[in-house]
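Subject: design request, 383 residues
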């Protein structure tokens, strides 16, 4: 073993370095590099963060990205990616990757899926072919992809749902969590995260957390939120749900969100998040800045020589005017999606860095006040 190898951790660990109120900052160490928390994970659905080169994604400050089991199992298939050396090599991203379990996306195929105790059978949205996902198959696919952080296979009901439906679904997910752990096996250089369910119900969230802790995971996700309940209801749930989880493991809020959702979640004790919003919005001309949300196709930008944000150091802001970005968006030039996605991802990572620094220096409340004041200043387009 050379000296370099001795310095590379061969297992995944989490160190919680500082807290400020309920907000936390720390580092998840992995053999593929450190993940600074709180962390925002860009979404690379089909083995690419749309409109971005992998080195550009890294340049925005992302330590980890998310891949989708559902999409990759259908095309190009996990077996093909495995034969080609795994997802990191396939997509040229050598930092950590977290993969979802496929559960959430399969569940949203209403009418095309059948749910049993064993798992879910469904028809591909691409060609109608029939597939099965079970806890065991999801673990196999995520292992073939080479995912560093693997998610348990779970079921997530859409909200609102009645209490019986939420309880039945949560208990099924807990049985699947035990099967996921068993199938994952002993892989200390990879992590398996359990997923808490239970809707907005405090008693079910606690029951779910207890069941997951009994099984034992490397990290814990808060699932089943950001599914239509609205920000106020989500924050109400986050006021108690993370407190049921172990303090010494990372906590991941799945599928969130807008900048103010992210800040509110970190304030309530969340360490990791993912969302398609910055990349998807970049392609539709929606721009997030310190001062609010711009719609670059708005005519008020067509003669404006200023950058999107004069303080931003991303390539879109350093080198291009709002007038140019307006023009290439209206002309449907590809550089529009590239530059606006880069800016949005850069801005989201800047928020994360700001929160990490603020928590480390016990100034999260001041940082949060400045964040909200900047947005209230109002460089905002009607959408
Ligand atoms: Zn920028």
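Subject: RE: design request

Done. Sequence follows.
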């Amino acid at each position: 073993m050379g000296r370099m190898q001795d310095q590379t951790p061969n297992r995944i660990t989490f160190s919680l370095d500082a807290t400020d109120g309920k907000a936390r900052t720390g580092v998840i160490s992995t053999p593929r590099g450190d993940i600074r928390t709180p962390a925002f994970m860009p979404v690379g659905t089909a083995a690419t963060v749309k409109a971005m080169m992998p080195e550009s994604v890294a340049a925005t400050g992302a330590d980890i990205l998310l891949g989708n089991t559902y999409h990759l199992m259908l095309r190009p298939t996990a077996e093909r990616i495995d034969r080609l050396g795994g997802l990191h090599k396939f997509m040229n991203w050598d930092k950590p990757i977290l993969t979802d379990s496929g559960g959430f996306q399969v569940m949203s195929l209403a009418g095309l899926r059948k749910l049993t105790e064993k798992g879910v059978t469904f028809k591909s949205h691409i060609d109608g072919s029939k597939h099965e996902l079970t806890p065991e198959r999801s673990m196999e696919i995520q292992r073939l992809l080479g995912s560093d952080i693997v998610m348990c296979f779970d079921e997530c009901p859409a909200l609102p749902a009645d209490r019986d439906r939420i309880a039945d679904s949560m208990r099924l997910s807990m049985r699947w969590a035990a099967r996921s752990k068993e199938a994952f096996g002993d892989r200390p250089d990879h992590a398996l995260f359990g997923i808490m369910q239970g809707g907005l119900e405090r008693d079910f969230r606690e029951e779910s957390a207890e069941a997951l802790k009994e099984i034992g995971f490397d990290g814990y996700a808060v699932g089943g939120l950001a599914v239509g309940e609205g920000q106020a209801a989500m924050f109400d749930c986050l006021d108690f749900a993370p407190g049921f989880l172990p303090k010494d493991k990372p906590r991941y809020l799945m599928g969130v969100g807008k900048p103010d959702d992210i800040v509110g979640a970190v304030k309530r004790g969340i360490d990791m998040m993912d969302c398609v919003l910055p990349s998807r919005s970049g392609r539709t001309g929606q721009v997030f800045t310190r001062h609010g949300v711009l719609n670059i196709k708005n005519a008020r930008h067509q003669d404006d020589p200023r950058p999107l944000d004069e303080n931003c150091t991303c390539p879109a802001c350093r080198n291009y005017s709002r007038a140019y970005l307006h023009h290439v968006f209206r002309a449907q030039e590809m550089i529009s999606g590239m530059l606006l996605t880069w800016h949005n991802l850069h801005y989201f990572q800047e928020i994360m860095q700001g929160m990490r620094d603020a928590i480390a220096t016990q100034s999260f409340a001041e940082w949060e006040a400045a964040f909200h004041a900047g947005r209230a200043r109002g460089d905002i387009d009607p959408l």
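The radius of gyration is 21 Å.
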